[in-house]
Amino acid sequence: MKVLVSDKLSETGLDKLSHADGIQVDIRTGLSPDELKEIIGEYDGIIIRSSTRLTGDILEAAKNLKVIGRAGIGLDNVDIATATQKGIVVMNTPQGNNIAAAEHTISMMLAMARKIPQATASLKSGKWDKNRFMGVQVYHKVLGIIGIGNIGGIVANRAQGLKMRVIAYDPFISEEKTMEMGIELVTNLDELFSRSDFITVHTPLIKETRDLINKEAFSKMKDGVMIINCARGGIVNERDLYDAIVSGKVAGAALDVFEVEPAKDNPLFELNQVIVTPHLGASTKEAQRNVASAIADQVTAYLLHKTIQNAVNVPAVSPEVMERIGPYLDLAENLGGFLAQVCSFRIEAVDIEFHGEMFERDTEPIVLATLRGLLAPVMGDDVNFVNAKIMAQQRRIKIKESKVEDTGDYTTLIVLKVKGKEEGHSIWGTLFGKKEPRIVRYNDFIIEAIPKGEILLVENYDRPGVIGNIGTTLGKQGINIATMQFGRDSMGGQAISLLHLDAPLNDEIMKELLTLPNIISVKSIRL
After folding, report:
1. Helix/strand/coil for 329
2. For a disulfide at 317, which of 61, 240, 321, 326, Cβ 3.0-4.6 Å?
3. What is the CATH number of the domain that holds 458?
4. Are the C-beta atoms of residues 37 and 320 closer than 8 Å to each other?
5. Phi/psi at 93 (nearest 5 deg)?
6. Which amino acids are annotated catalytic?
């Protein structure tokens, strides 16, 4: 089996690959996209970090590729949909660099608070200017953490050691769990913004988190707040951050990641209040050894023994089982992803019902797919088919699975219900012709829709003109409607419209839709 290593990898991982019986490893870093496309067809496996981009056209040329291994967490440089369609397993190493990333966050916070980089540069230039570099203490200050996953939890622990008061926002963690961690869980971001002296983000970059910290968010923060982003570029809007610093609203920012990388010409670099590093969160010798060793083991185990570990697009099942349940995995994951993106409450319980003889066995992978779909919109690449249930349980989400013989009008049916303290949603899905996924019910509304692509979900009162107004509004913005489906609970009652769109909607269009007559709510969903 031939394995290509296309990015720099620790010697620990390279040694493991070179000594693995049955594995031939080639190390070719710095390849251009055209060069990679030309040779990738020779390889059974490829190991990458963040530099190599495996786009759809490159993967189409990967005729023999069976596995992609990412030494690290983020997979935004891999076209996972194309890889899945071609049967290529995509793996990452979600645990290997957690400590390094958390420690870098704390280091950046302290360096920003005490202006250490600025003072270092001044002193090395021959100045002794103590008065210019008055800092602030972190002792008893409020640290607001957005996202209490693996890294966010470690950051909280380290901050508590500095005697900081830690508050956090995370829609997929229970108050019980955060109480055990000594963290105060807030119910919304506005509260975190208004109370925090320091704010750090630890979420993936997805549709819901892009520009999460923007002009509107800054307006809700304390004067003199300090911002840390060692997660992903794009979560903090850099233009708005620049303006907030110049205006004096934000006292400082510590950034390890940027909207465009490599970041060489960024206006934020002109500001003395900003300290920066070139995406060094995982750059410790220990972390690089950990992720290199882990991905070498995982890729070797898959190529030689078909053992799957930390896969983001396939559970650990035999090829025979996968052939039988594969279409249901996609259906279940998208049902979970749909509900995750419409829920405005903290999910405390998940109930998955399987209807039909098909589900007499082999439902565990489908449960994992459902949970991954639910968690991924918030946790991104941190959650996979191996750890989805564990991550849900760690967040005190109660999981119930049941099998029902009655299928009603369908041969098979998956019913997913999620509940918060006082609210709940349900979605019903099936396969048409054993392969085509369909949503057949959402809450109390009977509807037939494909759970794929850019979707606009509109809840409205059943009145004349609603659909026309929606179409006119989208048409004015140049948004084409591919398909439309409708459902209502009764004539003149409430209704839903589910539209598949050719392009995503921005916040301005969403706000305009909300102003239309008889509209109750609008939600943008990407599956």
Report:
1. helix
2. 321
3. 3.30.70.260
4. no
5. -125, 80
6. 232, 261, 279
Question: Per DSSP, what are the bridge partners of residue 45?
Answer: 3, 67
pLDDT digits (tens, 9 = 90+) for 120-175: 999 999 999 988 999 999 999 999 999 998 899 999 999 999 999 999 999 888 88
Domain match, 216 and 298 both: no
Which residues have a Cβ under 8 Å from the Cβ of 123 and sit 6 or more positions away? none
Report CA dihedral (256, 281, 211, 334) to the nearest 10 degrees.
160
351/337 Cα distance (integer angstroms): 15
Q: CA-to-CA distance for 198 and 220, rounded, in angstroms? A: 13
- Per-residue tokens: 58: 């490159």
Domain containing 254: what range?
98-276
Write down which residue in 434, 450, 466 finishes a domain: 450
CA atoms of 364 and 496, how far apart (whole Å): 32
Beta partners for residue 255, in sequence order = 229, 276
Do 193 and 83 share a domain, yes or no?
no
Lowest mean pLDDT among 72-76, 158-162, 445-449: 72-76
Rounded to an integer, what distance in angstroms lies between the CA atom of residue 98 and that of residue 92? 13
Q: Check if the beta carbon of residue 273 is closer than 8 Å to that of residue 253.
A: yes
Residue 348 sits in the same domain as residue 298: no
Q: Which residues contact 405 (CB under 8 A, 6 or more apart)?
A: 355, 356, 357
Distance CA 315, CA 273 (A): 46
Q: What pTM, to 2 d.p., does this model score?
A: 0.76
Query: Buried b / exposed e across 393-425, counting CB within 10 Å, b at 16+?
Result: ebbbbeeeeeeeeebeebebbbbbbbbeeeebb
Contacts of 411 (CB under 8 A, 6+ apart): 356, 358, 430
CA distance 170 to 168: 7
Domain count within the chain = 4
Q: Are 372 and 385 in contact (CB under 8 A)?
A: yes
Strands 250-255 and 165-169: unpaired
Check whether residue 208 and residue 303 sit in a common domain: no
- φ/ψ region of 95 (left if φ > 0, alpha if ψ in -120 to 50, else beta) reads alpha
Q: Tell me whether residue 118 is exposed, middle or buried, using C-beta atoms within 10 angstroms of its C-beta: 0 to 12, 13 to 18, 19 or more.
A: buried
- Banded model confidence at residue 318, pLDDT cuts 50, 70, 90: low
- The pLDDT value recorded for residue 309 is 86
From the centroid of its chain, how far is CA 11? 30
Residues 6 or more apart whose Cβ sits within 8 Å of residue 470 = 458, 497, 499, 513, 516
